[in-house]
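Handout, section B. The chain below has 273 residues.
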Amino acid sequence: MHQARQWYNFINEEVKKIYVHGYIKPEKSFHTLSEWRVFVDKILQYQKDGYYVSHGHGELVGPDELTSLIKDFYGFQLTVDVDRYDLLTSKNVMDHIEDFVNHRYWSLENEFSQYFTDIDNLKFAYFYSRGDLEPYVLVDDAFTEQVYGSTNNPKVLYHYTHPEGIERIKRAIEGGDPFDISAYTVAKRDFFRAKSNMIMEFEGNVRAGFRSDVKSYSVSNGRKCVNLHRMGYPGDKDNLCTDLVNDCNGELKTSLWNEFIVTPIRILDVSKK
C-alpha cells in the first residue's frame, strides 16, 4: 500500500513539472544490462529454491526479499500502468517477468546491440504498448554521446502542438528548465491529434533522430525514452539516424513522418496547421 501511494504521488508531482502528451515514466524504472542481470540472477535463484513468480497468479507472493525486488524493478507497472490500461493486468506483468528472467533477458543484448556502439552503457525499461510490455531505451546523455559523439546537436525542426503547449514550452525555455519533446522535419501524413492544430518551428538540441516515427514516452528527468521495437525500418537501413545533417531528412518509406527527440532552445515561428 505504501509503495502504491508513492507511485501515485509521483504521478501528481512529476506531471506538474513536465507537460507533455501521454504519460510520464519514472527514471528509476530504467536499468543497465548489468543491473538487470542482478535482478534476473536473483529471481532465478528464487525459482531454484521453489519460489516462482507465476505462483501468485498475478499476485505478489513469496519471501519479502523477492516481493521487494519485484516492486523495485516493476512497481510502477504493477500499480500505475495496470490501473491505467484496460488490457494490462497484474498477471500480464508477472508473466512478463517470468518470461524475461527465463528467456527475454538472455537475447536482449544480441537483439539490440547492432544499433549501438556500447549497449552496456545504456539504460532500459519495459512499459505497456499495444498489448504487451515492450523494451524502451532511455535517451539520456550517454545515448546521445555514443550515437553522435556530442550532446550539442542544434537543428531547426517542427512540432505539432496547440496554444497551451506553446506557452508551456516557452515558459520552460525561459525558466531554464526545458524538457525534451518529439519533433520532425518532413511529414507525409497529418498528425493524429485534432487538438494539435498548430505547427511550432523552433531551434532545438537533438538527442536522437529517427527515419520514421518511434514510439516514445517522456521521463521524469526531462528526457524521453523510445521503443526498441521501432528500430527497424524498410530497406537496408535501420530507423536510427546517425548523421543529423545528411541523413534522416529524405524519403519516408513508411509514408508517416520522421521523428527527433529534441530539447527546445528557441521558438522561431508558430503557424496554423
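Note. The first strand starts at residue 24 and ends at 25. Compare this with the example in section A.
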